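Deviation from plan, reported transparently: S-adenosyl-L-homocysteine complex.
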Amino acid sequence: MPKVWFVGAGPGDPELLTLKAQRLISEADAILYAGSLVSEAAMTWAKESCDIEDSKGMTLAQICDWLISKAKGNANVLRLQTGDPGLYGALIEMIQPLDAAGIEVAVVPGVTSAMASAAAAVETLSLPEVTQTVIFSRVEGRTPMPDGESLEELAAHHCTLCLYLSITLLKKIESALLNAGWSADAPIVVVYKASWPGEQQIIRGTLSDIREKCKLAKINSQAMIIASPTLGARHWSELKKSKLYDATFSHRFRKAERT
Ligand code: SAH
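Because the crystal trials were delayed, the predicted structure below was used instead.
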């Protein structure tokens, strides 16, 4: 049965591809990759004869036709997507026509840009007694947000927010978070092209000045915005430590020390 693999290419650094993605790239006869965010370096493992195309200028129908016709021609077909295919990747829209055409599909996860951004900035997204919750979301632009998911409502949880596709909407972010009770000097980190060798930029600021700082740095695309009460924790003198490594806390693999 013909098959198409949807493969997460990770955030940009080719070394952040999974071993599985690397193997599938090296075995593929046809690769359709998703525009500017998939590093071309990811394709260095492709065979000389591999038919590689960028889907940047294609419509959804053209993308599906390309995948279907290659798969029916018995090629080993890969759809390479940035980060993880299950986040803002139009995955199901592409899979439904393949299902209808009787083509098997499989999905390979990838390192999503939120995690690559946190890693680049040496930040944690969860911290004991600070926040134990992460929300992956975006700000309403041309794509409407479902009921109950406005940024203001999400921000009311005061947990970690990783905002995709929203770097041009920093003004909306500022007012939504202020309305939800965040302080104007709450720390914000913006990471441009996280993990891209030689291109990554990390901008640190506050809710009130991050927009100006991004403007000065000319960052208006390919950036992750992280707002979190955990930001900067590396430099805190008082930290609630994880129970897992607490000497007075027993768990499955270790008995508590007597105090
Ligand atoms: N599936 C992707 C997200 C695709 S939507 C993933 O899992 O990461 C595209 C958005 O992802 C961009 O607008 C930006 O917010 C974010 N993004 C993708 N790659 C990035 C990178 N290397 N650094 C920072 N943000 C990135």
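The beta strands are 3-8, 30-33, 51-54, 77-81, 104-108, 134-138, 160-164, 187-192, 201-206, 223-227. We consider this an acceptable substitute for the interim report.
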